[in-house]
């Protein structure tokens, strides 16, 4: 069926057409959330009434077209409700990651001149109250949870809905005649960036609507589909793909309780499609392998047989378009014994995982595909609304992000940079003409990513332009492919490769301590602390061997000569990752500057005496 209304031009038009389509259909629902440990649906009828009432409240309380209203909340029904209500007024919403500290929230609220903010709970309210004195434009705060005590100019969502209902009874035509143009700004999404202050990306209704339409052409979705939402709605990827696209097709969105409960919630929701990031696959794969290791020798052999059969099957299908009868029979047996049981762990109905937000290692995609799980890797940026490329269900090429979606043009510049043109390209950066002019030239958006196209138009991202390492010998090296090779080792949790203006490359490695402890037991050092493990010679040899083995796949100047083992992982909490889980290379190299310097001094001494 696809989109219920394929001709919508603005997001309120999308919302309105879906609500009209499902009016009176009590058994259909857009959102499902956990209440007292049980998944409870919210009907279209009830949700639409809430949107009307909250919109009326906001309008009567001074929110006008073009005003900015921030949303600081985890994924929950109130997030969707806030978004729909703000956009229905022609106002602009400003989504904020709930993990942001007060000083970063303050900068975004000041820069966007937000008139109001909707927060989820008392923790988020506390952050706003601590900075409110520095926000002269901020007139009111609305809390999604019920307020226990009265605070001046702070109200809760329940009170807003009650008041909004009274307002509409007194003024039934209040929400009529609001004119919203496709070229009006719908949202202001601040990109955290790995350096510098965040920039507000202005996305118009046309930008997002056209991107939703383009995506609906690729994957057939209808009201029989459902998804599990756990990526933050503050991110353009979840918002366009995991919210507007699904809602526009009549699919149900189940809300995960938390990132920790995803595997449990998948089994409960029985999704047909899941929008996710590569890190989830690492976690799933590690858990699967841990589980298999506890099974009998026979079951382990059956799993290995099924994995190997899947690999051969995919290889032959890609090469010839058909497989031998013997392989077909082995594949059918593997499906019965292994693939169906794995699918059952995901609820039994899963058609696709859609992966974005970061590069999916080729080997990871192939591994899951060999077990009958399809991952469609895509690509895009906040500035492109965000989806520009996606692998097609009928032809997946792992290691690529697929061809462009409809309406998007692509070009590879002479220096390898990926450029895009299309109706999905942002209006510009908020109050930053200079930064806008730097990235949009002659209508082409310059992504800052390096890539190449194959004969089928499938795009491979090779690195970030800013990440390219230029050694002291003048060699240009893309660190990402080298990092992927290192990260394939089960002993590596995270890695970054360093070498800017240096004679050689070195790697900063966060070990997988669980795997190291398993090794420590077999090596007779099972009682060692993390620090002792990092300094142990036998442990060092694991990583020396790893670097030697990947050296064979690299050019001389790409070889990683030395490594530095570090215990603390790169996380959002310690400031070494952005809210979109991208590693802050500059911050990390600054933090470990002395240790890196010591490794290079040692290396230089070795090479100078040779």
Summarize the structure.
This protein is an alpha/beta fold. The chain is built from 20 helices and 26 strands. Strand 24 (492-498) and strand 25 form a beta hairpin.
Tell me which CATH architecture of the largest domain applies here: 3-Layer(aba) Sandwich
Estimated structural class: alpha/beta
Q: Could you list the spans in which at least 5 consecutive residues all have pLDDT below 50? A: none
**Mean pLDDT, as a whole number?**
92
**Sheet having the most strands:** 5 strands, parallel
Radius of gyration: 26 Å
- The third-level CATH topology of the largest domain is Rossmann fold
Give the number of helices: 20
Q: Looking across the biggest beta sheet, what order are the strands in?
A: 4-3-5-6-7
List keywords for this structure.
single chain, 610 residues, alpha/beta, Rossmann fold, GMP Synthetase, Chain A, domain 3, 3 domains, five-stranded parallel beta sheet, 20 helices, 26 strands, 41% helix
What do you see in this structure?
This protein has 610 residues and is an alpha/beta fold. The protein has three domains: 11-272, Rossmann fold, CATH 3.40.50; 276-348 and 351-465, Rossmann fold (3-Layer(aba) Sandwich), CATH 3.40.50.12780; 468-609, 2-Layer Sandwich (GMP Synthetase, Chain A, domain 3). The chain is 41% helix and 20% strand. The protein is built from 20 helices and 26 strands. The strands form seven sheets. Strands 4-3-5-6-7 form a five-stranded parallel β-sheet, with helices on both faces. Strand 20 (444-453) and strand 21 form a beta hairpin. The model has no long low-confidence stretch (mean pLDDT 92).
């Amino acid at each position: 069926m696809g989109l219920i209304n394929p001709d919508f031009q603005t997001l309120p038009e999308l919302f309105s057409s879906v609500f009209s389509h499902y009016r009176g259909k009590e058994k259909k629902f857009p959102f499902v959330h956990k209440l007292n440990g049980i998944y409870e649906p919210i009907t279209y009828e009830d949700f639409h009434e809430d949107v009307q009432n909250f919109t009326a409240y906001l309008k009567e309380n001074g929110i006008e077209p073009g005003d900015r209203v921030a949303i600081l909340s985890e994924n929950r029904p109130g997030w969707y409700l806030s978004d729909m209500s703000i956009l229905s007024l022609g106002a602009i919403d400003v989504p904020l990651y709930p993990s942001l500290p007060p000083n970063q929230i303050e900068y975004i609220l000041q820069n966007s001149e937000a008139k109001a903010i909707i927060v989820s709970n008392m923790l988020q309210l506390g952050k706003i109250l601590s900075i409110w004195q520095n926000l002269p434009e901020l007139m009111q705060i609305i809390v999604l949870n019920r307020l226990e005590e009265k605070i001046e100019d702070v109200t809760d969502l329940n009170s807003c809905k009650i008041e909004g209902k009274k307002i509409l009874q007194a003024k039934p035509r209040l929400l009529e005649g609001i004119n919203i143009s496709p070229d009006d700004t719908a949202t202001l999404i601040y990109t955290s960036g790995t350096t510098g202050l965040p920039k507000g990306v202005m996305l118009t209704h046309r930008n997002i609507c056209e991107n939703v339409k383009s995506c609906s052409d690729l994957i057939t979705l209808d009201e029989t589909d459902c998804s599990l939402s756990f990526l933050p709605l503050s991110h353009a990827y979840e918002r366009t793909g995991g919210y507007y696209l699904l809602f526009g097709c009549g699919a149900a969105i189940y809300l995960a309780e938390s990132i920790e409960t995803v595997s449990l919630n998948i089994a409960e929701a029985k999704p047909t499609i899941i929008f996710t990031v590569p890190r989830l696959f690492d976690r799933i794969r590690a858990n699967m392998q841990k589980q298999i290791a506890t099974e009998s020798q026979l079951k382990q052999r059956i799993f290995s047989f099924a994995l190997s059969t899947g690999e051969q099957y995919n290889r032959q299908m890609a090469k010839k378009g058909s497989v031998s009868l013997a392989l077909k029979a082995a594949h059918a047996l593997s499906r019965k014994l292994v693939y169906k049981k794995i699918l059952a762990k995901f609820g039994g109905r899963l058609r696709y995982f859609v992966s974005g937000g970061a590069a999916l290692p080729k080997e990871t995609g192939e591994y899951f595909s060999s077990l009958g799980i399809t991952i469609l890797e895509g690509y895009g940026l906040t500035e492109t609304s965000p989806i520009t490329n996606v692998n097609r269900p009928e032809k997946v090429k792992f290691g690529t992000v697929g061809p462009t979606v409809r309406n998007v043009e692509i070009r590879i510049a002479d220096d390898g940079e990926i450029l895009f043109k299309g109706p999905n390209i942002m209006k510009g950066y908020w109050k930053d003409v200079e930064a806008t002019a730097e990235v949009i030239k002659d209508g082409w958006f310059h992504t800052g990513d390096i890539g190449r196209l194959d004969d089928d138009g499938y795009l491979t991202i090779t690195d970030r332009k800013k990440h390219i390492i230029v050694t002291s010998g003048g060699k240009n090296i893309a660190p990402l492919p080298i990092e992927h090779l290192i990260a394939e080792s089960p002993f590596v949790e995270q890695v970054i490769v360093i070498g800017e203006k240096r004679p050689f490359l070195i790697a900063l490695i966060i070990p997988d301590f669980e795997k190291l402890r398993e090794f420590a037991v077999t090596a007779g050092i099972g009682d060692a602390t993390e620090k002792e493990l990092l300094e142990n010679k036998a442990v060092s040899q694991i990583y020396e061997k790893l670097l030697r083995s990947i050296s064979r796949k690299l050019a001389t100047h790409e070889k990683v000569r030395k490594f530095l083992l570090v215990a603390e992982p790169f996380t959002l909490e310690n400031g070494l990752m952005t809210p979109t889980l991208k590693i802050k290379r500059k911050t990390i190299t600054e933090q470990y500057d002395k240790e890196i310097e010591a490794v290079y001094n040692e290396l230089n001494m070795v090479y100078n005496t040779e």
